[in-house]
């Protein structure tokens, strides 16, 4: 009885936090999505979202989010794997995570300086005879900078999954004659899939709603749902349409979380026998 009472008391801060900072903002967004510029109740915002303009925008957002997630995973997985094999793996992991502590705006402006027409990258291209190139305000620069920013968040969950992997399972696969690729495909990848899913969550979902990087790095060449929301709220002052886009963005995020949430697998440990519970 006492434990139940204590548990109820401990859940109060969590419940208040969820109500004030999760459910209340979502409720306000849904509420404002039913009003037009003049403050009248309308369903036109939802009808407008299913027009070709916003559907194209949604497809474009998913495409860029997919590219950012794909390249982040492509780099992060082998990086996390080799980190687990190094002597001072926690130190190397810390060095990878430290850049994520730097303000996002500062990092973005740093890349503007690096990729600008008079920046170091173009200076290097001139030295090797290629000449100055328009690197900024392109799809490449947007994806490259986004991948750089999100890579630490992809590496961390994958590193944790690989680090907890029971090495006895890998040894057993090799003893049974499996080569490196078969061991990875049949043992390592399935047992670290939850780490990959967590990485996809923390990269794909924020990538859908990017707006500052799209403005500063890609200019007007890349338009995502995030930039559309920013434009509706800050430029056209159409809070209703901006809220409607945000409602669908939240819905997309919820669906992605459902698909990327998996059960924890129990084949981890240090290879020693564990006492049965």
Automatic annotation (TrEMBL):
Please list every transmembrane segment annotated in the UniProt record, as residue ranges.
12-34, 54-79, 91-115, 135-159, 199-218, 238-259
Q: Which Pfam families does its entry note? A: BPD_transp_1
State if Transmembrane is listed as a keyword. yes
UniProt keywords (A-Z) are:
Cell membrane, Membrane, Transmembrane, Transmembrane helix, Transport
Question: For this UniProt entry, what's an example GO CC term?
Answer: plasma membrane
InterPro entries this protein is in? Answer: MetI-like, MetI-like_sf
Q: Which GO terms describe its biological process?
A: transmembrane transport
The record's PROSITE patterns line, in alphabetical order, gives: ABC_TM1
Its membrane topology, per UniProt? Multi-pass membrane protein
Say yes or no: keyword Glycoprotein present. no
Q: Which residues form a coiled coil?
A: none
Where in the cell?
Cell membrane
ABC transmembrane type-1 domain location: 58-260
Q: PANTHER family, from UniProt? A: INNER MEMBRANE ABC TRANSPORTER PERMEASE PROTEIN YDCU-RELATED, INNER MEMBRANE ABC TRANSPORTER PERMEASE PROTEIN YDCU-RELATED-RELATED
What family does the Swiss-Prot or TrEMBL record give for this protein? Belongs to the binding-protein-dependent transport system permease family. CysTW subfamily.
What name appears for this protein in its UniProt entry? Answer: Spermidine/putrescine ABC transporter permease
Native organism is Sporosarcina luteola
């Amino acid at each position: 009885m006492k434990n139940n009472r204590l548990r109820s008391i401990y859940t109060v801060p969590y419940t208040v936090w969820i109500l004030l900072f999760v459910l209340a903002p979502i409720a306000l967004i849904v509420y404002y999505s039913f009003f037009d510029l003049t403050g009248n109740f309308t369903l036109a915002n939802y009808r407008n979202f299913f027009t070709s303009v916003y559907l194209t925008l949604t497809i474009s957002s998913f495409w860029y989010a997919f590219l950012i997630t794909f390249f982040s995973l492509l780099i992060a997985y082998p990086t996390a794997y080799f980190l687990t094999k190094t002597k001072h793996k926690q130190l190397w992991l810390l060095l990878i995570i430290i850049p994520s502590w730097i303000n996002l705006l500062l990092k973005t402006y740093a890349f503007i300086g690096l990729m600008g027409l008079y920046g170091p990258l173009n200076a290097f291209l001139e030295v090797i005879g290629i000449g100055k190139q328009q690197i900024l305000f392109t799809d490449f620069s947007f994806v490259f900078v986004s991948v750089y920013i999100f890579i630490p968040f992809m590496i961390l969950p994958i590193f944790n999954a690989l680090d907890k992997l029971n090495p006895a399972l890998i040894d057993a696969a090799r003893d049974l004659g499996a080569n490196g690729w078969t061991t990875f495909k049949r043992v390592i990848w399935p047992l670290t899939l939850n780490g990959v899913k967590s990485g996809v969550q923390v990269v794909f979902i924020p990538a859908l709603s990017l707006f500052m990087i799209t403005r500063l790095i890609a200019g007007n060449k890349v338009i995502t749902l995030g930039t559309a929301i920013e434009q509706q709220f800050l430029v056209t002052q159409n809070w209703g349409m901006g809220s409607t886009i945000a409602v669908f963005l939240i819905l997309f995020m919820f669906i992605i979380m459902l698909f990327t949430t998996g059960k924890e697998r129990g084949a981890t440990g240090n290879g020693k026998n564990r006492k049965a519970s």
